[in-house]
Amino acid sequence: MVDAVILLCVMPGTEQTVKEKVLELNEVRKCNITFGEYDLFLDVKAKNVKTLGSFVTKEIRRVSGVTKSITLIISESLEDNG
Question: What residue ranges define each of the domains in the chain, with the CATH number in brackets?
């Protein structure tokens, strides 16, 4: 499995609509609306890198309102348990 973060830029005023749409996709585990250069922060999981690439190009980038995406593949995850 591949974990990734996808950062999205969307058309002004479409943040909530895009969030609702991407949360319908099985690969998206979490979606946050953010302030700054990117408008949404997605936590996703895919079967492999090829599947992730297909998901981004065929699902995420086709959501109405999305203007730009940046995909960051997680190589290592460290969790603070304290």
Answer: 2-70 (3.30.70.920)
